[in-house]
């Protein structure tokens, strides 16, 4: 069966897998937190704790913080600070989701 073949994984560079895994492991250990946000027209309003978690400080209040929204409908959407390990991980997740081989693997793993 194609899904059991090691050749599927050989298409993914080992370095890319290591970088993404390292990004997951390098978190500060603060864990996931939930925040209430308000969307009004095209503006998402957040509280100060969420703004700070995304990199905002009083020193950056004038110029702001660049954020990136990545998504893979309908399963995955992430807002990250642009250029961070989290941003690279989110982009990589979306790029991988478009790869037919990755889709096959995910479909296979869904029923394991």
Task: Explain what you see.
This protein has helices at 7-10, 14-25, 48-53, 85-97, 100-110, and strands spanning 38-40, 43-45, 67-72, 76-81. With 112 residues, the protein is an alpha+beta fold. The strands form two sheets. A two-stranded antiparallel ribbon has the order 1-2. It has a two-stranded antiparallel sheet with strand order 3-4. A hairpin with a 3-residue loop joins β3 (67-72) and β4. The longest helix has 13 residues, at 85-97. The chain is elongated, with a radius of gyration of 17 Å. The model is unreliable at 1-27 (pLDDT under 50).
Strand order, main sheet: write it out. Answer: 1-2
Q: List the quaternary state of the chains.
A: single chain
Q: Hey, roughly how much beta strand do the residues contain?
A: 15-25%
N/C terminus separation:
15 Å
Helix share, percent: 40-55%
Query: Helices and strands, in N-to-C order?
Result: HHEEHEEHH
Shape: elongated
Q: How many whole angstroms does the radius of gyration measure?
A: 17 Å
Low-confidence stretches: 1-27
Structural class: alpha+beta
- Count of helical regions: 5
The biggest beta sheet is recorded as:
2 strands, antiparallel
Nearest-integer average pLDDT: 78
Question: Total number of β-strand segments?
Answer: 4
Q: What is the strand and helix layout of this fold?
A:
Elements: H1 7-10, H2 14-25, E1 38-40, E2 43-45, H3 48-53, E3 67-72, E4 76-81, H4 85-97, H5 100-110
Antiparallel strand pairs: 1-2, 3-4
Keywords:
112 residues; alpha+beta; two-stranded antiparallel ribbon; two-stranded antiparallel sheet; 4 strands; 41% helix; elongated; disordered N terminus
């Amino acid at each position: 069966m194609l899904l059991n073949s090691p050749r599927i994984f050989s298409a993914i560079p080992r370095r890319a897998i290591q970088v993404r895994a390292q990004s997951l492991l390098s978190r500060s250990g603060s864990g996931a937190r939930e925040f209430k946000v308000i969307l009004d027209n095209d503006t998402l309003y957040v509280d100060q704790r969420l703004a700070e978690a995304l990199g905002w400080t009083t020193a950056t209040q004038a110029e702001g913080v660049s954020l990136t929204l990545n998504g893979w409908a309908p399963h995955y959407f992430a807002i990250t600070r642009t250029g961070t390990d989290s941003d690279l991980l989110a982009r990589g997740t979306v790029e991988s989701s478009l790869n037919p081989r990755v889709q096959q693997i995910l479909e296979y793993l869904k029923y394991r």
